[in-house]
Amino acid sequence: MKRVTHIFIGIVLLLGAMPLCVYAQAELVPDTVRIERARVLEATQTQNAIIPGTDTPSKIQMLTVEVLDGPDKGQVTTFQNDFTQLETGDMFFVRHMITSDGTEYWTVSDAYRFDLLISLTLAFLVLLFVFGGLQGVRGLSSLLGSLVLIFYVLLPGILGGHSPIFVSVGVASLIIILGSYITHGFNRTTSSAVIGMLITVASTGLATYWVIHTGNFSGFATEENVYLNFNTKGNIDMVGLLFGGIMIGLLGVLYDIAIGQAIAVEELFRAGTHMSRAEVYKRAIRIGREHIGALVNTLAIAYVGVALPLLLLLKQTYSSSASLISMLNSELFASEIVRILMGSIGLILAVPITTFVASFILEKHRDALATHQSHSHHH
To answer: Hey, which bits of the chain come out as E strands?
Structure first.
């Protein structure tokens, strides 16, 4: 009898829990979100308003739009827009969200810019072909190869749970090797630059690894990192991702200065066949110093341009509530400072390293360079 009573109680509890299970399943039904192209049929009632909870003014307009593609193609709807202000006839991307209970929300996702991007790309290609010639085409091929490595090796490797440190260093090395030989051909000068860049990447990588771990960086300086961590369920090493970003960002300026130094050494050996290796190294370093001065300034200003909103936030916060030291010490700002300084350090190291490698390799083939030079003059 006691056993039957237990079974009866269990059945009652199970039946009582079923509505809760059904309710929980209903709550877990994800929202449906569609991003579709649309056109503004009418934009009216533009008015000023204050964003709730803040003192920030905003403009609100009533939009009547037609969806141009996707599952909602042909549908006409009207909604309020407090995002990018649009005019009648404008194309844009609309965000259509359908909640689990069937409620629909329409909002402006983004302005339509694809035609503009295509026009700019065509203008770039025309100028590249006209003024860059064959070398420009080879440079473009190198760029496309680098993008393929980034999108099909670097990103999948990191998202697949592999160490961002090893993946980024490996991809950076491949970009250096393939990009250099595609653009400048297989020759001793290019090989000198490649070896110099690989040594510089290794040296700067070790220094960056030490800096990041000594500074106790978490890798969660921005909202994007936080969202990425949630979306991947914590499978990505965010500190390693910070390291990888610094390494990939270093490649652009590193490539420029390493190739320039290797070519400078080659030309010095050709022009001054009587000069010793030490003298060629000294003169090439002189050229490199001028290059460093220009590129370090370029690198810092480029980072400032990207981080301009961050700098405005720094100035506003510093002047109102926090000390300058506490703001610079925060990971949000400190990580950007580390990017600038490690990129600059790698840039500076590339000059003596590449110059030494090039002077050592090319000095052994001085006669071949001189012969090539004399044949060029003869022709």
So the answer is: 32-50, 57-67, 76-81, 91-98, 104-111
The CA dihedral of 354, 355, 359, 361, to the nearest 10 degrees, is 0
Per-residue model confidence (pLDDT) at position 375:
45
DSSP 222: S
Cα–Cα distance measured from residue 133 to residue 139, given in angstroms and rounded to the nearest whole number? 10
Question: What are the φ/ψ torsions at residue 86 (nearest 5 degrees)?
Answer: -120, 165
Backbone angles phi, psi at 41, to 5 degrees: -85, -35
d(CA 202, CA 242): 16
Q: What is the pLDDT of residues 251-299, one digit of tens each?
A: 877 888 899 999 999 988 888 777 888 898 999 999 888 888 877 777 7
Residues 6+ apart with CB under 8 A from 271: 373
- The ranges assigned to domains in the chain are 33-49+58-112, 134-378
Query: For 166-185, what is the mean pLDDT?
Result: 90
Q: Are 350 and 344 in contact (CB under 8 A)?
A: no
Closest C-alpha to 291, from 244, 253, 318: 253
Q: Residue 37: CB partners within 8 Å, gap ≥ 6?
A: 67, 68, 69, 70, 91, 92, 93, 94, 112
CA distances for 51 relative to 56, 58, 84, 145, 320, angstroms: 6, 6, 14, 46, 22
Q: Structure pTM?
A: 0.74
Element (H, E) at 224: helix 223-231
Q: Which CATH architecture has domain 134-378?
A: Up-down Bundle (1.20)
pLDDT of residue 21: 45
- Is CATH 2.40.50 what the domain over 33-49+58-112 is classified as, yes or no? yes
| CB contact at 8 A, 284 and 268 | yes
The tens digit of pLDDT for each residue in 193-203 reads: 999 999 999 99
* Percent of the chain surpassing pLDDT 70: 84
- Do the first three CATH levels of 33-49+58-112 and 134-378 match, i.e. the same topology? no
Q: Token match 């506003």: residue?
A: 316
